[in-house]
Amino acid sequence: MQAQVxxxxxxxxxxxxISKHSIPISPHAEDLWAEIKSLGLENHIAxxxxxxxxxxxxxxxxxxxxxxxxxxKILDVAERRSGVRPDESMxxxxxxxxxxxxxxxxxxxxxxxxxxxxxxxxxxxxxxHYLVGEKAVLSNCIAIVxxxxxxxxxxxxxxxxxxxxxxxxxxxxxxxxxxxxYTKENGALCFVPGSHKYYRHxxxxxxxxxxxxxxxxxxxxxxxxxxxxxxxxxxxxxxxRVNLLMALMRPYMRPQEVxxxxxxxxTLDRNPPIFRNLMGKHINYGWKDEGPQxxxxxxxxxxxxxx
Length: 307
Ligand SMILES: O=C(O)CCC(=O)C(=O)O
Description:
By secondary structure, the protein is of the alpha+beta class. It has a single domain (42-280), classed as q2cbj1_9rhob like domain (Jelly Rolls, Sandwich). It has helices spanning 2-21, 27-38, 42-51, 58-61, 66-82, 113-120, 122-132, 265-270, 274-278, 295-298, and strands at 53-56, 103-105, 137-146, 153-156, 172-178, 189-191, 212-213, 221-225, 230-232, 241-249. The strands form 2 sheets. A 6-stranded antiparallel beta sheet has the order 1-8-5-10-3-2. The protein starts with a helix and ends in a 9-residue tail after the last helix.
């Protein structure tokens, strides 16, 4: 009996400690902060917190020459998929497209190892792990090629299918490589600064006069969270705007593109260990009568927002 009382005391004092701090501090938080500092991303984390988005300059975003190689590969895939080489100088192949997005090229990850390299870039991953945890999973990997004409892309946020009010910890984030110069005339992305704190989707036509164009040179990385209202301006200048975007999300969300079931052993072996998580290989939901294979990861006891 006495032993039982002692056990209860320990359990109670433990639960008091936890409820006092609301969420126990994760050991991963300190490691992640050290990594953020070593990559020189502290100001970008601050900007993300205050404005809901941040732009990482080319010299920090990726090694020299990476963005140019990535753009060439996207144009190669566009040519292979459509049979026509995109007209980079005038944009005639992509003029006046019906979709405000421009031409969406989905499911790019397995088209070439360079897309996997883009995903495993430590800069984008540190930002993503900060916002949606280190168990983050890839939801989509999409290139956009946008020519002159067309319409502004409506303001929206990337918390698709999620009802307001959004929860305090963000669920989704977006890593975008801008591969051509972004200006308003070139059809830049735009944001409503601070809108990540509204915790809801924009209403139709809401926030238009608060849009700020992201003007940045080719090779920049633009990062934002799923709460932030954003859209894009129609391109008015000749030529093409080219990007690669990747949405990452918390592991309990439903990915838009199905990687976990389609990634090959060869692709897993060729990439760093984190790639397994990004493909959702650490998720053990979907069991049948055998039950969860790893109970520790099947439940969320004691998990912190950074885990
Ligand atoms: O890059 C763009 O023009 C728009 C991207 C966007 O809206 C999105 O990824 O949700």
